[in-house]
């Protein structure tokens, strides 16, 4: 992560290239962006934008560079787009930043420190499972882009009757949230285990490959409990165990019950390799 940050800092005057940055962290673009967000609370794009506008403000306040030149240097196609982004961060226009006593905001460079926790145990089990079929509805999403998220997709599937259709087709009344085809973007599927090869109208069938899974139990109201569990899996469990993510789909298993209750239980299945 430190290598990735160093590369980002050296190239703030260049277009953001997540694939190159992820390589510096020995990671795929998807997993790098997810880990960066888990550790910092910011997407890679948000962080680089704030850093660029911090450096741009400093340049405007301390040099005679033209606004249009500074805008182009930090990746903005027009002074108007630069001015809009600049005002959103600093509360003033780029030209006002030149005035003596102008108040500007600095977003400092992030640094990472290794912290040893372990005050709360992570309970898990490891199981080998054969390949199985799932049927459901899927959408293409981009990591870090919250304009249309997993939560939005769940809401749409509740409204259009997809959830009701899937629950009624599964004798265990379980719903699966599956993250697959992982790259810079990914497929997210709301599904149930397929009883038949021919799906109902509007649904598709996918094969989940045979895997070794590490299975964690989440207890608490959604979505907070499961989001917190994912963070702990990647921040604590993986570094402590010597396993790696195999690249196969990740599965959220939602069991029957009140998902807003303090004792609601569901599972997270992560595919692993030793």
Automatic annotation (TrEMBL):
<dbReference type="Pfam" id="PF06445">
    <property type="entry name" value="GyrI-like"/>
</dbReference>
<dbReference type="InterPro" id="IPR010499">
    <property type="entry name" value="AraC_E-bd"/>
</dbReference>
<dbReference type="InterPro" id="IPR050959">
    <property type="entry name" value="MarA-like"/>
</dbReference>
<feature type="domain" description="HTH araC/xylS-type">
    <location>
        <begin position="2"/>
        <end position="100"/>
    </location>
</feature>
<dbReference type="InterPro" id="IPR009057">
    <property type="entry name" value="Homeodomain-like_sf"/>
</dbReference>
<protein>
    <submittedName>
        <fullName>AraC family transcriptional regulator</fullName>
    </submittedName>
</protein>
<keyword id="KW-0804">Transcription</keyword>
<dbReference type="InterPro" id="IPR018060">
    <property type="entry name" value="HTH_AraC"/>
</dbReference>
<dbReference type="InterPro" id="IPR011256">
    <property type="entry name" value="Reg_factor_effector_dom_sf"/>
</dbReference>
<keyword id="KW-0805">Transcription regulation</keyword>
<dbReference type="Pfam" id="PF12833">
    <property type="entry name" value="HTH_18"/>
</dbReference>
<keyword id="KW-0238">DNA-binding</keyword>
<dbReference type="InterPro" id="IPR018062">
    <property type="entry name" value="HTH_AraC-typ_CS"/>
</dbReference>
<dbReference type="InterPro" id="IPR029442">
    <property type="entry name" value="GyrI-like"/>
</dbReference>
<dbReference type="InterPro" id="IPR020449">
    <property type="entry name" value="Tscrpt_reg_AraC-type_HTH"/>
</dbReference>
